[in-house]
Write a structure and sequence with these properties.
Distance between the termini: 88 Å
Largest sheet: none
Helix content: 55-70%
Radius of gyration: 24 Å
Shape: globular
Strand content: under 5%
Structural class: mainly alpha
Order of helices and strands: HHHHHHHHHHHHHHHHHHHHH
Length: about 500
């Protein structure tokens, strides 16, 4: 009697269902990873497509060479220390995703709100990576790339975006280990192409020897003169941006999701591979490419200018290397909401949203501000996680209070999130957004009215405000809830 073989599709689905990523429980010891995986993971995610966008922004914003080299050194050092000293120690002790940690600390309702908003931003970021990759894929097909002011790309360009987005979604479905393997394969080659493209472009700018470099850097690349429509960036703005760029992941604790797989907390220092190869060297290299470009400054063409088709291919893979982990994070985040869905199904659904965002050229044109707003928006709950884990046990407060008390939402965490965001919105927006200026005119305290920080200076102030608010609100909440309940006396006369 013949036995019918099961359909191939059911076999594929069952294999995808087996890709378990510890979405709702701590990672087991047998699945922890060592140094090599994290060196390649951070290098791969940060030597990425965004580097072809963010590096040129310092050229367009008229930064000086001293501000770029010095500011990036300071800002990236702060980022590495934030990963290693703030995020990694909590990650290796809890071994759960940031989404699950927030659910335990702040309650399921706040976790749903956080995860939904994070997913939207991650889709924006991943969409920008698909957009960057397509600017290179379009070159051999002679399909024009949309300008930053365009509403929609052409239909052939959108077709390429669908294809590239589908590949990125498949890589994200493979999970953490699959992405790490892909990064290890690509990183050495990508670093070589970045440097080769920049070096090949320098003669176009008049740099023919090492002794010429600093002169050319100051007169042809980072000249201190902003392009029309761009505000000038100084040393501290660049340092602040380098720190703020990934603040959601380190100070905001989002990389609990990645570092929960680390054997030791010291592996948080592997973030230096991404910060100094990517957010230092690659930003400088792409700035050189931008200065050497004539007219077109989209990532694909400027990389092709320096390294031909190897440069264009580097843009494609760089986009994949950051878009896939971004989709992976978003898929894990929505597991808090779609509890009955497998992660791979959620990830593929998000991939569709990402492709839609990829066809929105305005995202790339405003990527620095989008990244900055995202960092400040999600930073307060990261501060709450820090306080909940390290400070509460030392001051007699209960950690993970929402979980232990069975609360649907922690109002101290909710008010802290809202209060810290409001502080940053008022501090920055009152001087930059006319609607907010008219709304708060004459209504702010003198100290806040006179405080005029740039967006990139707000990381530390907002973190301090969030820590203070969370401690005060938690003291009020837990002390009030811990009071004994007074029993009413049925016989007042006694």
């Amino acid at each position: 009697m013949a036995i019918n073989a099961p359909p191939a599709t059911s076999s594929i689905v069952s294999r995808l269902d087996a890709l378990y990523e510890y979405e709702r429980e701590p990672v087991k010891t047998k699945d922890l990873h060592g140094w090599k995986v994290f060196w390649s993971t951070y290098a791969g995610e940060n030597i990425a497509g965004t580097e072809f966008v963010l590096g040129p922004l310092f050229v367009l914003h008229g930064a000086t060479a001293t501000a770029v080299f010095g500011g990036l050194a300071v800002g990236n050092l702060l980022a590495v220390l934030s990963w290693a000293l703030l995020c990694a120690p909590i990650a290796v002790r809890t071994r759960v995703t940031v989404y699950w940690q927030i659910r335990r600390m702040a309650g399921p309702w706040l976790a749903v709100i956080y995860s939904s908003l994070v997913a939207v931003f991650l889709c924006l970021l991943a969409g920008s990576m698909v957009n960057i990759s397509v600017t290179a894929v379009s070159l051999p097909f002679h399909i024009p790339n949309p300008g930053p002011g365009a509403l929609l790309p052409s239909l052939p360009w959108m077709g390429l975006a669908v294809g590239v987005g589908a590949i990125i979604a498949v890589l994200a479905v493979l999970g953490f280990e699959g992405m790490a393997i892909f990064s290890k394969m690509c990183i050495p080659w990508m670093v070589t192409v970045f440097f080769a493209a920049a070096i090949a472009t320098l003669p176009r700018l008049g740099c023919t020897s090492i002794s010429d470099f600093w002169r050319v850097a100051n007169t042809k690349i980072w000249t201190g003169v902003a392009a029309p429509g761009y505000a000038p960036y100084n040393f501290w703005q660049i340092a602040g941006f380098a720190w703020l760029c990934n603040v959601t992941y380190h100070v905001g604790m989002a990389d609990l999701t990645i570092l929960r797989y680390a054997k030791k907390w010291q592996m948080g220092f592997t973030s230096s591979a991404g910060m100094y190869l990517g957010h230092y060297c690659a930003w400088i290299a792409s700035g050189i490419l931008c200065a050497g470009a004539i007219g077109d400054r989209t990532p694909g063409p400027i990389a092709y200018l320096g390294a031909g088709f190897a440069g264009a291919l580097c843009v494609v893979i760089a986009g994949w290397n950051v878009a896939s982990p971004t989709l992976y994070r978003a898929g894990l985040g929505l597991q808090v909401i779609t509890a009955g869905w497998k992660r791979w199904r959620v990830t593929l659904l998000i991939g569709v949203v990402v492709i839609i965002f990829a066809c929105t050229p305005a995202i790339l044109a405003n990527l620095d501000r989008i990244v900055g707003y995202n960092g400040l928006f999600f930073l307060p709950l990261g501060a709450c996680i820090f306080v909940d884990y390290w400070i509460f046990p030392k001051i007699g407060l209960q950690s993970l209070h929402a979980e232990k008390a069975g609360l649907p939402v922690s109002w101290p965490a909710a008010l802290t999130w809202a209060g810290a965001i409001t502080f940053s919105l008022l501090a920055y927006g009152k001087d930059h957004y006319p609607i907010l200026q008219n709304l708060v005119a004459g209504r702010l305290p003198a100290w806040l009215d006179g405080y005029r920080p740039d967006l990139f200076y707000l990381v530390l102030p907002e973190w301090i405000v969030a820590i203070g608010l969370y401690i005060v609100f938690s003291l009020m909440s837990q002390k009030w809830m811990s009071r004994p309940v007074l029993q009413s006396n049925p016989n007042p006369a006694q």
